[in-house]
Amino acid sequence: MKAVMYACPQSLDEAVGLFAQRGPRARPFAGGTDLIVQIREGKKEPDLVVDLKRIPELNELSFQPQRGLVIGAAVPCSQIYEHGKIAGLYPGLIDAVSLIGGIQIQNRATLGGNLCNASPAADGVPPLIVHRAACRIRGPRGERTLPVEKVCAGPGQTALEDDEILVSFHLPAPPERSGARYLRFIPRNEMDIAVAGAASYLELEKDRQTIRGARIALAAVAPTPLLVEEAGGCLAGERAGEELFARAAAICREAARPISDMRGAAWQRRHLVEVLVKRTLQGALQRARGGGASPQGRPGGVNDGPQGRPGGVKEQDS
Amino acid sequence: MATVKTKKTTKSKKASQIPVRYRVIGTRPIRHDGVDKVTGRAQYGADVQLAGLLHGGILRSPHAHARIRSIDTGKAAALPGVKAVITSADIGPVTDRVVDLGEGATRLQHLRDNILASGKALYQGHAVAAVAATSPHIAQEALRLIEVDYEVLPPVLDLREAMEAGAPLLHEDLHTDDLGTKSMQPSNIAKHLRFEKGDLEKGFKKADQIFEREFLTSMVHQGYIEPHNATAFWNADGRLAIWCSTQGGFTVRQQAAAILDLPVSSIKVIPMEIGGGFGGKIHVYLEPVAALLSKKSGKPVKLVMDRAEVFEATGPTSGSHIQVKIGARKDGRIVAAQAQLAYEAGAFPGSLVVCGMMCIFAPYDLEHQRIDGYDVLVTKPKTAPYRAPGATNAAFASETVLDEIAEWAGIDPLEIRRLNGAKEGTRRADGLVYPRIGFLETLGAARKHPHASAPLEGPNRGRGVASGFWFNVGLKSSVTAAVNSDGTVSLTEGTPDIGGTRTSVAMQLAEVLGLAAADVKPQVVDTDSVGYNDVTGGSRVTFATGLAAIEAARDIERQMAERAARLWGVPASKVKAAGGVYRHATDSKKKITFKELAARLDETGGPVVGKASLDTSASAGGGFGTHIVDVEVDPETGKVQILRYTAVQDVGKAIHPSYVEGQLQGGVAQGAGWALNEEYFYDDQGRLANASFLDYRMPTALDLPMIDTVLVEVPNPGHPFGVRGVGEVPIVPPPAALANAIYRAAGVRLRQLPMNPGRVLEAILTRDGKPPSKA
Amino acid sequence: MKLHVKTTINGEEFEFLCEPRESLLEVLRDRLGLTGSKEGCNNGNCGACNVILDGRLVNSCLVFAAEAAGRAITTIEGIQGPEGLHPLQEKFLEHAALQCGICTPGFIVAAKALLDRNPDPSEAEVRLWLAGNLCRCTGYDKIVRAVLEAAKSTAVVMEK
Amino acid sequence: MPTVFIPAQLQSFTGGARKVEVKGKTLREVIEALDAAFPGLRDRLVEGDRLRPGLAVAIDSVICSAGLRQAVRKDSEVHFIPAISGG
């Protein structure tokens, strides 16, 4: 690994100062699960890594019914799924944070890093998108807010300036009769990067049949995580059902622009998007109707036992 | 044939002299090295620390195939902290010859060129230069400063294309050895071999149906968790010491001596604890390089590969193209079988296609057979053995065709195997005749196992069965065993312990001497401290080093009997030893235990040391396994989940049943990974795209169920306790068993490994008339 | 430039100098001589380097040594108590849950972190928790059994 | 007389014959007899005073370790096979 310096600012201002000074030669560092590997492999060559884990604003994790959910950019995944309130309110997000890497990775990896690493396959991003998360971004020129779906610009590229820091995510409180689900497809049952992923969010009318609103976002089938507004749009005002979901899934399949690589072929990814969108819509529907049960069990019965994680969240891959 | 039988029977009688009710054999003592390994104290190769130690690094070719025009190491050498830089020029001139490495012969030039490329880089990751520096990070920085001028040449990645005339050549001087005749034109086909038995055409004429199928498998890696490492110190007196992670200290010594042109006696190899090998830690990669760096710097040098280097530059096992043609009668009897196996050798000749040829039809008694094998060069790493090398690819082909035949004939898959199964007296395609083997017994035990008849509940589920064979080897082992005054025995071995063999060998010595397993103190020592040993490989250590331990124990027993005789003032012939007690043949008052006697060695003539050096090649017993697996296939994604797995195997005699079970379970896990996800994924430029544990996708704890094992014990007549090698057989059946299960679950026959979700999905979509558009 | 780091390892205070680019794994192994933590992949995919950092299981190859300042680390060397082997270590031995042993420290540290949080895990929970640890020798069967048995035996101790 | 099984790659020496019977009480004698009948065969089997590297001999299906001194009986089968071990 090439030589690098390490700074551990205690405040947001101090951190902003460091980036203002160093610009592109400094890299923000939280969980390190991507960055350390990238530096080791020579893919990123910063002079300075700025450890953000001791900055209070980046460690906030709180929910208030009016304000919604605030997740500091440096909060590790395991703290999110262990948080009593979040699991019930943002199940789609919990699906994602509990399947990134293994336990060891979840204890380090952060949603901030997941987003800013800007991998098209990031599991954390589609659920943030469908939960309408906004990013609070801080730089030497002040603060701004950006919807999550506007952050990724391409593989490894974000809309953040070199001197800007992602501080936190802000998710509105979920309305009644809403639910979300994230599923990804991987060849093994853990530890893989998504071949394709889909997050679906549904909000129902009082009849629990008619869809008031919907959002669908995809992973690993385009240069960036993809919000397919047309697919969500085609669901609004309609009665939930298999045929309707199939229509949305077909739209997503068309919207996908996947590549072929060692993790999967383009045709396979398009096919999987359709399957995953159908499954996540079913899952989101069940959750919106108040059923927490997962629509698809993990084959092999390994999820039949008690809850897998201390946070009490059951997770599956598709 | 009759003579063979008689001979074996004689041996069995000899074996029966040892009581069949054992006190130690078949029990499950705590392994001797266990505490060190659960507390983190065990010292593996990368843990070596020496005063003044330098850290090395290796520059590797980014190209799959390139001529090296020049290498400029000036800037790297000038970097502060860098103490030595070497290239192939530092190995010195070579007179090419064939070197015998004890367990295979190879051209010295090829051996050297794989260590550091001279002339051409033949795969991405091929070592080109090396540095030693005061820290691993400085070494890495220095590597970036080495300038190599490459002339990039076209890669040769597809086995079948490599075989075609006109394919780009890896070695311009290599001609095919085509059934003993040297080809006129140079070629990427190094060798064409054949086994033949009976009259194939005559056999096929008797068939009611002929099944012709074609199979492809990808290159896969052994995947041991510990990366290769080597630390070397070239002392001022010319003595070279090498600490490393290897399956055999003596083979490292032999290879290093050949490459460095040194007498073997000037090299001492200290085999450290080894973090997995599976055949992949027999070839040397780093040891001679560390030695040269040490020679140049005058300091000890440690080289440790990173995971990408392990994938890119150490021996995977061959990818293959296999064609099988089998003729069967309606009653399920196979009347003729033909196979053609082409195996990737990698960048230098020497795939283990011949093992695939030996194993492909080995479980069956077939009158008419012809098996052709081709050893084919491609611009990928030089292949190395991997657990039953060559046999898994072969069984994937033969055992899935057999499943088709069973279905066609309307016969149960276990029954068709019994109907055609090999037994004592059966002659294989390579001509050898089986002694007592236990294949049919594995089929019987499989049939009786509850798994075989358990109902399959739920849709998209299926059950598959497959069998497999590995011949197992004996080879050479030496041990010494010294009696301590407290009645214990210190046992010195030279076969590195990868899976508990210190204990399985010590138990055999303990059994003979009437001691407890814990009374034996086994250790694996360096090449200066014990007689010659072949590698820990070929499933041979518990068998062969065990035989040596038994011999050494008998040697001790003889000497101890003499000591007892001396104590009593009687002739040694009057002393009988049994179960650790030495008795006077007629005077029942005169008896003394081993422990009591051990305390009195000083007064009866001094220390007692037993020893044995054996070539046990003659009597290694072949091993057979039969596996049953249930899967569920997700028809929408093609993902296969293993629900239940049972591995039945003839193990001869399980010395330590827990570690035998462990061998079966581990083999199944590797076979399942090979079957479902593992593969070397190259881009079209010949760069390995998945050189990480993340993307190579070995099974995790979540991908496998508990793996049930059934240990069938048909004693090997060549071992007094009946031991057969057990380590390799269990990797052979899983891909075929899984393919057969997938067929029964999803209705699609997969003939390409891995059967990853994409392939299974494609097969399902194609079956449904909706083949994926790959545009 | 070297950093001066004060940290607690296995209950004892340690001070070391390191370069910022050095990982916690490198420092443990090469500077502090704690070679029980192993390097299998150096990118967080095998778990051989697992340590417990402030109560959380992490891959020490993905932690900068500098981050250890002021924090508490448990490595495999700290699992055994003064009274002898930890039940996990005993059960790994009894159940032959290791073959080559290179992954064993990582598995034991990971399993310790699991039992600290969930003293009575199911097989499914054990498998899920250990999915970040690769073993190539055992097929996991005996490892999972050893962890389940260790959980049982610690439960008995606690009841007493 | 002992029966020698000729591997496919050496059958060009024996005119395609897969099995031949030759005299000999040791492997050395058998190979001498083979070479007398099929000139050139010895060099493909033996290097100096040893079997060629990479080659093993099985007598009555038992891999032998005594090299050219190995005893061969009148009704023995002799196979030349590749020397291999495993993983």
Count of individual domains of chain C: 2
Most extensive interface: B-C, 60 and 62 residues
The CATH superfamily label of chain D reads Beta-grasp domain
Number of helices of chain D: 2
| Overall tally of structural domains of chain D | 1
Secondary structural class of chain C: alpha+beta
Highest CATH level, the class of the largest domain in chain C? Alpha Beta
Q: Which term fits the overall shape of chain C?
A: globular
What would CATH call the homologous superfamily of the largest domain in chain C? Beta-grasp domain
Strand residue percentage of chain D: 25-35%
Number of strands of chain C: 5
Strand content of chain C: 15-25%
Could you tell me the CATH topology label of the largest domain in chain C. Ubiquitin-like (UB roll)
Second-tier CATH architecture of the largest domain in chain C: Roll
Name given to the CATH architecture of chain D: Roll
Q: What is the C-level CATH assignment of chain D?
A: Alpha Beta
Runs of chain C in which pLDDT lies below 50 for 5 or more consecutive residues are none
Largest sheet of chain C: 5 strands, mixed
Mean pLDDT of chain D: 91
Give the termini separation of chain D.
Answer: 37 Å
Mean pLDDT of chain C: 95
Q: What does it look like?
A:
The complex is a heterotetramer of chains A (318), B (775), C (160) and D (87). Chain A has 2 domains: 167 residues, Uridine Diphospho-n-acetylenolpyruvylglucosamine Reductase, domain 3 (2-Layer Sandwich); 111 residues, Enolase-like, domain 1, CATH 3.30.390.50. Chain A contains 11 helices and 14 strands. By secondary structure, chain B is of the alpha+beta class. Among the domains of chain B are: 186 residues, Alpha-Beta Complex (Aldehyde Oxidoreductase, domain 3); 145 residues, 2-Layer Sandwich (Aldehyde Oxidoreductase, domain 4). In chain B, helix 13 runs antiparallel to helix 14. The radius of gyration of chain B is 27 Å and the shape is globular. Chain D is of the alpha+beta class and 87 residues long. Chain D is built from 2 helices and 7 strands. In chain D, the strands form 2 sheets. Chain D has a 5-stranded mixed sheet, with no helix packed on it. The radius of gyration of chain D is 12 Å and the shape is globular. The interface between B and C is large, with 60 and 62 residues.
